[in-house]
Amino acid sequence: MSDSPSPTTNAMPARADGGAAGAKPKVLPRVDIARPPFRPLRAYAFDPSLSQELKHTGIAKAKRFDEVTVMFTDFKGFTMLSERMGAEDLVKLVDFYFSEFDKIIARHNIEKIKIIGDSYMCAGGLPIVNTTNAFDVVSAALEIQEFISVQKDERNARGDIFFEVRIGINSGPVVAGIVGLNKFAYDIWGDTVNIASRMESSGEIGKVNVSGFTYGLIKDHFTCIHRGKVEAKNKGMVDMYFVNKK
Question: Distance (Å, rounded) from C-alpha 222 to C-alpha 16?
């Protein structure tokens, strides 16, 4: 006796997405992702006018400043010290030091520009123009070195790791602007910035090293020691001064 044929089914073949061919695809409910409200960009140390320009047009024009004072700091032997510490402890310690730097420069009306690794960069005289930027930045640098010295004594007495720092400063014109798409960055460019970096790398631990340009602006307010002309990488021989005190 032969088997009866199986009844024919009208099932539709499956689509690649799991649904039946010819069936209407599922329409997922619309999910509106709310954009975060515009946040005032003061957190990025912008001139309020730049913040408004960026808000309304999506761009902000670069601006030239004829006289600003730029400071760089750098920790001594940071790489070696970091290898002796756990990641969490390292970040906590760096945050402690840089948070204090933030407080110090805020007291002196200086703008933080950025942190690159263990290098801290800030500038006076922008985004709001002033005529005291050289005095302000050198004052802050001396205060930072005092903080570093106190921390060294206290931490050394406890057997804790501490940082020592070189500081370099230069004054002159820069171009400033906002760059980036996803994370706005207020940055500055120019030979003034490059020479400030050379002042730091050509300085000494525990000292504030300034260029001849900055010295000309602060010489009536601080006791300085002329180092003579010191060779700065890619800049040739440059006049440098160590600043001791007001």
Answer: 77
- Domains of the chain by start residue, with CATH: 42-50+63-245 (3.30.70.1230)
Token pair for residue 125? Answer: 């005289």
Whether the CB-CB separation of 245 and 146 falls below 8 Å is answered with no
Q: What pLDDT does 229 receive?
A: 85
CA geometry: angle 219, 224, 226, nearest 5 deg? 105
Provide the token pair at 243: 């600043």
DSSP, res 203 = S
Tell me, what amino acid is at 158?
Answer: R
Q: How many CB atoms lie within 10 A of CB 246?
A: 11
Q: Name the 3-class secondary structure at 129.
A: coil
Measure the CA–CA gap between 69 and 86, rounded to whole angstroms.
36
Global confidence as pTM = 0.76
Output the CA torsion sign for 51, 52, 53, 59.
positive
